[in-house]
Every structure is written in C-alpha cells, then in structure tokens.
Amino acid sequence: MDSETEVILQAINDTAEDIWKEFDADESGFLEREEFKNFCLKMSDALNLKKITEEVIDEMIIKFEGESGDKKISKDEMKRYLKDLYGIKDETE
Ligand SMILES: [Ca+2]
C-alpha cells in the first residue's frame, strides 16, 4: 500500500467517525433508516443534488449494503462505500 492510499484510508476512517458522531443519534453503532435518511439529506444539501425521496433512500441503502442487507448501515459498509468512491480496493475481503 502506498502512502497516498494510507492517507486516504485515514481520511475515510476519520470521515466515518465524524458521520457516526453526528448521525448515530441512538448510539447503536448503525445508521438505521431514519438516521441514514438524515445523513443523505445533509449530503444532498451540501452537494446540491436532486431532492432525496424515500425511493432514493431505499436505493442508497441497497447501494451501501446490497439487496440482502439488514436495512441499517454499519460503519464498515460506510467505509467500503467511501473506498469505492476513491477507487481503493478493499484488501480485507
Ligand atoms: Ca443508530
């Protein structure tokens, strides 16, 4: 792993921690649907994306954890998604 990748991985870990601090309101360790929705709404505001609908939330959840998921987002699922965004291969899988 090169040092640039390490820096990005560190940033991803920090980002996930920050997201959890802000959005895991019941401190369950997961973003349940309502918490995940709040996260998506904030992101869409920040990024000026199209309006987030209930359907978009469902699509996002499937994007994060696949069809057979438990409908709540774990920190690992968030990190995997962020790694995907940055084009980093997950070497632990
Ligand atoms: Ca939670």
Number of strands: 2
- Report the average pLDDT across residues: 91
Low-confidence stretches: none
**What is the distance, rounded to the nearest whole angstrom, between the alpha carbons of the first and last residues?**
15 Å
| Percent range for β-strand residues | under 5%
CATH class term: Mainly Alpha
Overall structural class, as computed from helix and strand content, comes to mainly alpha
- According to CATH, the homologous superfamily is EF-hand
Helical region count? 4
What global shape is seen?
A: globular
CATH topology: Recoverin, domain 1
Present as ligands are: calcium ion
Relative helix content: 55-70%
Keywords: Calcium
InterPro entries: EF-hand-dom_pair (IPR011992), EF_Hand_1_Ca_BS (IPR018247), EF_hand_dom (IPR002048)
GO molecular function, one term: calcium ion binding
Protein name: EF-hand domain-containing protein
Task: Note down, in words, how this protein is organized.
The protein has one domain (3-85): Orthogonal Bundle (Recoverin, domain 1), CATH 1.10.238.10. The chain has 93 residues and is mainly alpha-helical. The model has no long low-confidence stretch (mean pLDDT 91). The protein is built from four helices and two strands; from the N terminus they run αβααβα. A two-stranded antiparallel sheet has the order 1-2. Residues 24, 26, 28, 30-32, 35 line the site of calcium ion.
